[in-house]
Specification:
elongated, 3-stranded mixed sheet, alpha+beta, 145 residues, single chain
Length: 145
């Protein structure tokens, strides 16, 4: 079982709860009201490790006119560019927009057909910058094009 705190106790003892998270101990915080759900505090590193099981599949292709397009699965987004580097950068922007829209728009976040995409959005949102998103999508060795 997770280490458990009532909401008021967690608020009063936030330093203790945060220390637990720093020691890789997830903490369950009970909801304040019946209309709310419980929350979990977990370290960023642990969450990133859990989410590694949700890989992106990238299909990048060269068109006859010399331009590129990329398809990002499973988020069903695509991007184009005149060069491979432009296409990859466009893919990064599309992925970031997808993740921000999913998290910031309550209906997208709650819809049954987009709920399976939450782990992918979280992987993108855990990236600190565009270079990390590019590495996430295309792999570390490919991010140096």
């Amino acid at each position: 079982m997770l280490k458990e705190y009532g909401f008021s106790t967690a608020r009063k003892n936030f330093t203790t709860v945060f220390d637990d998270v720093q020691n890789y101990i997830p903490s369950l915080i009970r909801a304040r009201k019946q209309t709310e759900t419980d929350g979990i505090m977990i370290s960023r590193l642990v969450l990133a490790e859990i989410l590694e099981r949700y890989p992106f599949e990238i299909d990048i292709r060269l068109e006859e006119d010399g331009s590129y397009w990329v398809w990002i699965q499973p988020i069903n987004e695509y991007a184009t560019g005149n060069t491979e580097a432009e296409c990859r950068q466009a893919a990064v922007e599309v992925a970031r927009e997808f993740a921000e829209d999913l998290i910031n728009e309550p209906f997208m976040f709650q819809a049954k057909n987009t709920r399976p995409l939450i782990p992918y959005a979280m992987r993108i949102l855990l990236c600190d910058n565009s270079q990390e998103v590019e590495q996430l999508l295309f792999g570390a060795e490919l991010a140096e094009v």
